[in-house]
Amino acid sequence: MSELKAIIVDDEQHCIDALQTMLQKKCPGVNVVGWAKSVAEAKGLIDELQPDLVFLDVEMPYQNGFELLKLFEKVHFDVIFTTAYEQYALKAIKFNALDYLLKPFSVKELQDALEKCKEKKNNRGMKETGGVSPMDVFLQNMKTLQQTHKKIALPTINGLVFMPVQNIVRCESTGNYTRIFFTDKKNLMVSRPLKEFEELLSDVDFFRVHNSHLINMQQMQSYIQGEGGFALMSDGTQVEVSRRRKADFLKKAMQF
Predict the structure, then answer these.
(1) Is residue 153 domain-shared with residue 70, that is, in the same domain?
(2) What is the DSSP letter of 137?
(3) Are 84 and 102 in contact (CB under 8 A)?
(4) Where in the sequence is the domain holding 40, given as residue range(s)?
(5) Sign of CA dihedral 146, 182, 233, 211
(6) In this structure, are residues 226 and 240 in contact, taking their beta carbons and an 8 Å threshold?
(7) What does the alpha-carbon distance between residue 31 and residue 218 come to, in Å, rounded to a whole number?
(8) CB neighbour class for 8 (10 Å; exposed up to 12, middle 13-18, buried from 19)
(9) Which helix (H) or strand (E) is 179 found in, with range?
C-alpha cells in the first residue's frame, strides 16, 4: 500500500511533537506533511495538501475539531480523533465506529488505530449505509447531541433514515442489531448493538430498563408494579424492567 500522507491538528505543540516523533520512529508508511494549531490553519492546510489522514484534536480554543469537519461539504480524508476528555463527544465517535485515541496514548494504541485506518482504506466500501460514509452519519449525530430539536441518523442498507429522537418509543436488542420502534407504529432494524444506542441517547431521556430494552422516558405512560415491573409505552407495549435496574429506573421516572 502507498504511503499515508498525514496532518496533525492540535493546539498544544508538545502533543504535536510527541505524535510526530511516534509516527516517525514507530509507524512506517505514514508521512506527516504538516501540522496546525487551529481550525482556520487546519482548513487551509487540508485544502492545500489534500492529506489521506488527519489526526484531529477534539478540544481546542475558539473552535473544536468537529467544527473543522463541518467546514467541508464532503470529508475526503480519514480522521483519527485525539482527545484527553472522555465525554459526550466520544459517544458519537464510538457509535459510528470511527477511530480515536484517548490521551495519553501508547505506541501500540497508535499502531492499532493506523492499522484499522489502513484496512478501511483497502476495503473501502459503503454497502451498509447505501453509499453514505460513517463520517457523514457521525456529523449528523453530532448535530443531534447539540441541537434542541434533535434528529438521529440511522444507517440502513438503502442509505440513511433521519428520525426525530422524540419519535422513538423504544429500542430492542436482537444480538448485534437493534430494532427501533416509532410513534407511528413502524419499526426499523439497524446494524448497531443496543449498547451503542444507550451511550448515544442516555443524555436525551432514554433509559436502559433491561438487557434487551432501551426506552424513551418521554414516551412512557405509566409503570406497572411488580418484581421488576413493566413500563407501559405510548405504543401500547409493556416493556419489562429488570429487578436490578428498578431502583435507578424509578428515580429517573420521578423526574418526568
Answers:
(1) no
(2) H
(3) yes
(4) 4-122
(5) negative
(6) no
(7) 50
(8) buried
(9) strand 177-182
Tens digit of each residue's pLDDT, the chain (256 residues):
578 899 999 999 999 999 999 999 999 999 999 999 999 999 999 999 999 999 999 888 778 888 888 888 888 888 998 988 766 456 657 656 578 888 889 999 999 999 888 777 666 544 444 455 667 666 666 655 555 447 787 877 777 788 888 899 999 999 889 999 999 999 999 988 998 888 888 878 899 999 999 999 999 999 999 888 999 999 999 999 999 999 999 988 887 6
- 129 domain residue, yes or no: no
pLDDT score for 130:
47
Residue at 8: amino acid letter: I
Number of independent structural domains in the chain? 2
CATH number at residue 22: 3.40.50.2300
DSSP symbols for the chain: -PPEEEEEE-S-HHHHHHHHHHHHHH-TTEEEEEEESSHHHHHHHHHHH--SEEEEES--SSS-HHHHHTT-SS--SEEEEEES--SHHHHHHHHTT-EEEESS--HHHHHHHHHHHHHHHHT---TTTTT--HHHHHHHHHHHHH-SS-EEEEEETTEEEEEEGGGEEEEEEETTEEEEEETTS-EEEESS-HHHHHHHHGGGTEEEEETTEEEEGGGEEEEE-SSS-EEEETTS-EEE--GGGHHHHHHHHTT-
Looking up cell 443531534 gives 144
Q: Rounded to an integer, what distance in angstroms lies between the CA atom of residue 173 and that of residue 7?
A: 39
